[in-house]
Design brief:
Blueprint: E1 6-9, H1 24-39, E2 44-49, E3 54-66, H2 72-80, E4 90-101, H3 110-121, E5 132-138, H4 141-149, E6 153-154, E7 164-170, H5 171-177
Parallel strand pairs: 4-5
Antiparallel strand pairs: 1-2, 2-3, 3-4, 5-7, 6-7
């Protein structure tokens, strides 16, 4: 379904089409902060849009998964999947900093399609080493369920009562399932 929409990187001179995902924090980021993050080299925002509106957007930035930021047992599990003699203290990741789908398009699987697009974007078109996708997911059942259905796991159980939960996805899983490697 997302193939019917235009995909583009948000730039300084980009027209920002109407968008409302129903979350004031995400809407505010999209309208007020996305270009500031771009100017400061903090995050890049991409949009899917039709002629009238922004259908979905996501912002990405560099990240890492380290033993300091995750539970030891989880980091050992992650580390065991890397077939290399040298054990790294951290592994490269891309963080989905913000992600939203316009309310008009909720419950149409667009969020899952965009998430699959992001996974492909960082496996097939990846310009640097990037093994994982991370996200600080809002700690709402619907949001957590969305990420779990899309293959994400928790990095820690210690943030269960926080506003956000640290989650990760191993891009190698996507690459193997889609013959990208």
């Amino acid at each position: 379904m997302i193939e019917q929409f235009t995909f583009r990187r948000l730039g300084f001179d980009s027209e920002i089409k109407p968008f409302d995902c129903g979350d004031s924090d995400l809407n505010e980021f999209f309208y007020k902060d996305a270009l500031n993050y771009l100017r400061q080299f903090l995050a890049v925002t991409y949009v899917f849009e039709n002629k009238l509106a922004t259908v979905a957007f996501f912002s990405v930035l560099n990240d890492r998964i380290s033993g300091e930021d995750s539970e030891k047992s989880i980091f050992r599990k992650i580390r065991s999947k890397i077939p290399h003699k040298k054990h790294f203290r951290s592994f490269p990741a891309v963080k989905v900093g913000r992600f939203g789908v316009d309310q008009q398009f909720h419950s149409q699987r667009i969020g899952t399609e965009v998430m699959d697009f992001i996974k492909a974007f960082f496996t097939i078109r990846n310009k640097t080493g990037c093994r994982f996708i991370t996200v600080d997911a809002y700690n709402y059942p619907r949001t957590i369920n969305f990420y779990k259905k899309n293959g994400f796991d928790f990095l820690t159980s210690h943030d269960g009562k926080e506003d956000t939960r640290s989650m990760y996805f191993d891009l190698m899983t996507f690459a193997r399932n889609n013959s990208a490697c």
